[in-house]
Amino acid sequence: MGETEAEEVFPFDINPMYEGERIRKVNLYVELGGQSKPGFELVLFEPDPEKIKDGEVTLIGPDLEEMEEGGTYAYAMIYRVYGEQIDKDLEAVIERRNHEYQGYIQGYMHLNQRAEIWVRIGKEAVKKGLKTLKQIGRATIMLFKAELPFIEKMEAIYITDEEEVVRRLAEANRIYEARDAKTMGLHDEDVDEFYQCTLCQSFAPTNVCVVTPDRTALCGAMNWFDSRAAARIDPEGPNAPIPKGECIDTIGGEYTGVNEAAIRLSGGEYDSIKLHSFLERPHTSCGCFEVAGFYIPEVDGIGWVHRGTKVSETPIGLTFSTIAGSVGGGKQVKGFLGIGIQYFYSPKFIQYDGGWHRVVWMASDLKERVKDAIPEEMRAKIATEKDVRDIESLREFLKRVNHPVVNGVVREVDGVRITEGWAAEAVEEVPPAGVEEAVPEREPVTLDPLAQVIASGVNSPVKIILKDADIRIGKIIVKRRGEK
Ligand code: SF4
Q1: Does 51 reside within a domain?
Q2: What is the Å distance from ligand 1's center to 287 Cα?
């Protein structure tokens, strides 16, 4: 008799308390997907219930026992679902829950979504009796059906054969693109409600995800239609409507309803969010964002780097992972922002801060991927790692291409000049030897987290990161090196 989910006793605990569990390299049995191997997860609706073998898990490729300890393998998780209340619109909603339910499995770490999935299986889990990925598949199906009773039938196809993963990934990407295209043409002003998502609060408790037609979720997995479908089918679940309320700032995208949700969802940590701002009260970022943005004060512009980039360092000397460490955790971090790739295509893309006219650097593979979103006149003005290596060469590049940040950015949406530019910046004069320059007393300066990183000297061999520091400067004395 074949095992079914009702009969099977799993060799691992299944409990929501394991959500957010991290498996470090030292405890790693195998890694699946992630930065170095292809991977994806996909839910497909099957309208004919007869075509689904309920509870069955098929594995294509090597299983755990055939994998080398410490190795990394390709990984695809495809689920076929049927239910009278289900249609294609719910595919993305069900798919996003894979992250949540697999997080309940002890010794199994699931991060990210779509074609970014990153799974780790711990040595302990294998020691305790985890033998096959089919056990993971059956536990996942059991959880899906218990938590979402509208799923009547479900089967899984897990793939670890790399060629097969790559072959099916092409099809998955076409499906993701078709889902994303649905929100084109619908804008924030066309709807009365946005949607919240609290799925990631298990590891980022103050995270406030607000999904709107012009701002797809930062994980890239939930657009406004998906969130609406989720709220309807699972009203007690993580997605609920946020009535927009009054619009306080049309350019920044600030609404009374969103501000109320920010207070409620962050436990009072944040009281306002501008949906389309980068520098002023930006959207919070958990850990799932597809792309991290970082402000570069030396050029008064913004850079972007994405998860899975081939580029090792940004011009500020930080990698994606280091930047992600500063952005994540459900914080509203001035100077950093996590977004979904699709937000680049939004007509309101960081419009409060000048939109594309403020973008000075992108990882080349990201720039290539979203090139259709970049306005024609800005394409050659945005540097990549192929053009510049550090801040100095970035400044030179921007001057050479006459980037808007050089002479001041005029916000396209309202014609307001929002930055002054730095072309005419006076060259800093060093006072003659022995002269002490006294600077008058001034208000205390609070460095935001980005400034703290920049102040740390990113091009120096030593990095000092000051978190939540208040620095008061009463007097600055400038001296030549070696002078007493
Ligand atoms: S990143 Fe936001 S929208 Fe995506 S699953 Fe997490 S909380 Fe939900």
Answers
A1: yes
A2: 9
